[in-house]
Structure formats: structure tokens, C-alpha cells
């Protein structure tokens, strides 16, 4: 899969009060080939596995979630999780696939008093 086809999307609230728990929603476009499907171009062989196998989110230099994914994860995986608003700053979300390619999306978390 070409890297240009990977489209990470992240949704966070525009403004969050300090100490408030907020929801982060992510969706990444990826076909998540599990390696079990027959290859029509090469009879007797299977498509090679190509999945996103790691996901992490770092908010103000603190890792808030880390996940190891396996072939059972669907194509275009959706992830949501909660975090606590500490102070304004970046949240960096990273997806890594079997080929070692990483896809990163940075969102700004705006914390109000």
C-alpha cells in the first residue's frame, strides 16, 4: 500500500477545561491485509501481511496510550480513548505498520482555566 493512501484523522474538542476528561477519536485509512487471503495474481500464494501493528498517543511528552494490534483488527481502524486535560500542548499520534513505516498526526490541545 502506498504511503500516500494512509490518512490519519483525529478529533478532539476545540477547548477543554483544566482537569477535564476529554475524548479523542482517531481513524486511519489502511487496508490491514491479514496475510490469509489468496493472491489471485500468484495462485497458491497468499497476500503478504501488511497491518498497522502499533499505535501510540503522546500528550505533552507523556504517553497516554499504547496499543499492539494484531491481524484481527479491521481495515480502516477506529480508536477512541480518554485523556485528562493538564495544559495546552501537542498530542502526537503515531501508527506503525509491518513494513516499519510510521504515520503521524499532531493535534493541538487547547486547555482553558
Layout of SSEs?
Elements: E1 8-11, E2 16-17, E3 21-28, E4 52-59, E5 62-68, E6 78-84, E7 89-97, E8 102-109, E9 111-112
Parallel strand pairs: 2-9
Antiparallel strand pairs: 1-3, 3-6, 4-5, 4-7, 7-8
**What best-fitting shape do the alpha-carbon axes yield?**
elongated
Largest sheet: 4 strands, antiparallel
CATH architecture: Sandwich
Low-confidence stretches: none
**Radius of gyration from the alpha-carbon trace, in angstroms:** 17 Å
The order of strands across the largest sheet is 5-4-7-8
Number of domains: 1
Supply the CATH class.
Mainly Beta
Key words describing this protein structure:
about 110 residues; mainly beta; Immunoglobulin-like; 9 strands; about 0% helix
Give a written overview of the molecule.
- This protein is mainly β and 113 residues long.
- It has one domain (3-34, 49-112): Sandwich (Immunoglobulin-like), CATH 2.60.40.
- The protein is built from no helices and nine strands.
- It has strands at 8-11, 16-17, 21-28, 52-59, 62-68, 78-84, 89-97, 102-109, 111-112.
- It has a four-stranded antiparallel β-sheet, with no helix packed on it. Strands 1-3-6 form a three-stranded antiparallel β-sheet, with no helix packed on it.
- The radius of gyration is 17 Å and the shape is elongated.
